[in-house]
Amino acid sequence: MRRSRFLRRLGLSLFVLLLILLVGPFLVPVRPASGAVPTDQLADPDSHFVDINALSVHYKLMGQGRPVFILLHGFGASLFSWHTVMEPLSAYGTVIAYDRPAFGLTERPLKWSGQNPYGPEANAALLVGLMDYFGVQKAILVGNSAGGTLSMQFALEHPQRVQALVLVDPAVYGNGAPAWVRLLGKTPQMQHLGPLFVRSIQKRGLDLIRTAWYDPAKITQETLDGYTLPLKADGWDQALWNFTMASRDTGLLEHLQDFKIPILVITGEDDRIVPTADSVRLAGQLPGASLVIIPEAGHVPHEEQPAAFMQAVKTFLTTLP
């Protein structure tokens, strides 16, 4: 009798716990992020938009002729992160910087059919579409952090479209969320709560920016405003959650010896986000890659030390066929 009663109570407790886990998350209100506005209200005078693969893509363009530089920003950033080097780069050719899906002012679809627009395959396909739109057969891809990872993935999949790579503190080792996290994140419960988790970037993001710099005292208000502006766009939180859940290990490390194009790896001497040692290691594993370590710089040397960054790129350009 006592055992039977215990089992009934245990069963009831487990049922209540399961009910809480299944239904409880839906009882938490997830209201739209405060202060959100349409992206076109956040655009700059030199902003441009083009429809690529059913997405409205935000980009900026400078310079003309060849070579063509395409700039790919990292996680949590936008094309704004290139604002100090776009004009200097344009002295050598055409410069195109664009916002990747889930970032900046590029469209953030909340529903879609077919390929996930936030996944690595769709990101690569978007870059192909962008190059086709501009009539660019080959480009020099300049990627920072996760943008460097995408640049490398693209070069493997479309080697005929890449003239060279400039990898700026590339996030290659330990890339992608663990499989169990993605599996949990795809449940209806976590899809409902996801935006609440990513909204913490509104506060933590400022600390992350400071961590990215060697000398946080040099971060201007313009820089902080540039990074936080996209957090005012409609649906930014849900899109960032979707992007995080779509990230995964693409097996890039298994193909490092397959790169047959000129590569420059640039890193700050004190990168606390992607350790400097990782960039040094990567340069050593990529056939024929050059390495430049910029003093007094962290994860974004192109922002913190633009003159030194440009000198490294200028020297690299002289080695290209």
Structural commentary:
The protein is an alpha/beta fold. The chain has a single domain (41-317), classed as Rossmann fold (3-Layer(aba) Sandwich). Helices cover 41% and strands 15% of the residues. It contains 12 helices and 8 strands. It has an 8-stranded mixed beta sheet, sandwiched between helices. α4 (146-157) links the parallel β5 and β6. α6 (188-198) packs across α9. The longest helix has 26 residues, at 2-27. It starts with a helix and ends with a helix.
Query: What would CATH call the homologous superfamily?
Result: Alpha/Beta hydrolase fold, catalytic domain
Radius of gyration (Å): 22 Å
Percent strand: 5-15%
Alpha carbon gap, first and last residue: 86 Å
Shape: globular
What is the averaged pLDDT score?
85
Please give the largest β-sheet.
8 strands, mixed
Number of helices: 12
List the uncertain runs.
Answer: 14-28
CATH topology category name: Rossmann fold
What order do the helices and strands follow?
Answer: HEEEHEHEHEHHHHHEHEHH
Question: CATH top level?
Answer: Alpha Beta
E-strand count: 8
Sheet with most strands: strand arrangement = 1-2-4-3-5-6-7-8
Which structural category fits the helices and strands? Answer: alpha/beta
Oligomer status: single chain
Number of structural units classed as domains: 1
